[in-house]
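Table S2 (continued). Query chain:
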Amino acid sequence: MEKTTPRTKLLKEGSAHQWSFTKRIWKNLLVLSSAFLLNFTAFKSLQNLQSTLNSEAGLGVVSLSCVYASMVLSCLYAPFFIHKVGSCKWTIVVCFFGHVLYTGSNFYPSWYTLIPSSVLLGAISGPLWTAQTTYLTSSAQEYAELLQHESPEGDIAKFNGIFYLLNDLSGIIGNLISSLVFSAGTKGIGMGDFCGAMDCGIRPEANYTSHYVTNSSAPYKLAGIPADDKEHVIARYILFGVFLVCNILAALVAGLCLDKNANSKELSSAGRIQVSQQVLRTVRVFKDINYVLLVPLLVIIGMAGALVSGDITKSYVSCALGVHMVGYVMICCSLSGTVFSPLIGHLTAYAGARSLILAAVVANAVLLIYMLLWQPDEDSLGMILAVSGGWAVVRAVWRIQLFAVLGTMFPSNQEAVFANAKMAESIGSMLVFAYSAALCMDVKLYIYMSVLALGTVGFGVFECRTRNKKNQEADTF
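Corresponding output:
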């Protein structure tokens, strides 16, 4: 006998009810995506600039490492945090204010301001992304139920595609703003002789560093620009002021326009659960061998993002073209993700999530080999744009398809699973930023290649296990 739920009962009563529910779901999806667009317009641009704006003693990359190290721990208590707040919606709103403080600390970047705000940002990032993924996945499942779809996997991928379309658009807007602000008078700054896989940061034998150098006694000045140049000091204040407004608007949009998710009542009633129980619930996800097999690819998602924003921007873009081109190249990267994210979501119905993931693995391997053999120069703009765009497309495939697979595999334990997935992703980002200033670019690429190979093997075993399980279930019937 077919199970009847309140929503399916309303669906049978008339299409008007169906239209009302689906309209609300689409409205919430667009509001959620718009809020993250505003918030990450600031953060993505700041992340791309940290390795150049605050390079003295590695302050920029150390601060980013602190963000993701703290985020790893925050993913453990993310479900408890969401339950304590009461809903995914208000978790998102509360966490946006952590981004407000982080952006504010960039007005006066030092070890005493940027590092504490980075730790705080990481502490709220796990709950933020867990709440976002849970909210979006539950909305997609509700949508699939209303339309009586056989499996919600395609709808989850479609909703993820739309979300990441707008999320990647934030990179375009933020990088365009920073590029326009910093273009004047900065051409040639950040360029070096050792670019691409040959870049090892500091070259003592040449008395040369390919990093930006800033003066800790003049935290307001842009690297390579005189501290008394008021024009550039004002420009920096304007840039961070715009980003601060974006963070505040994001919190207001989410707080005023986003509906509570379908699981709000369950979250409120579960608020009394002890934090130790919630942490154990998150850790217990590792008992599922199928999830463990996917962990290396989840780590790769974080490593890919960190490699592009922290290392490729310095070793391939700034080194060969100058810092004024970093924002424009990252615009191309974000544009690629924006264009391909919805397309990837729709392709799931035709090619399947597994085929798209394997195609991304092959494409990423080709990019890695090319980057090891290629040394960029001043005439390499076209190829740099193509390579950065390729990285964005590959990462978009993994973000969309892997989370769709996880949402389908664990429909009743989504908060713990997504928290664990974001923790794995954060570990990848943390590791890349942690060793960024200590290793040569070719070594970083070899490390990434090793984790990618491990992830590919794990995914192959996962695919065999799930396929055998489906065949056994089919034989049972």
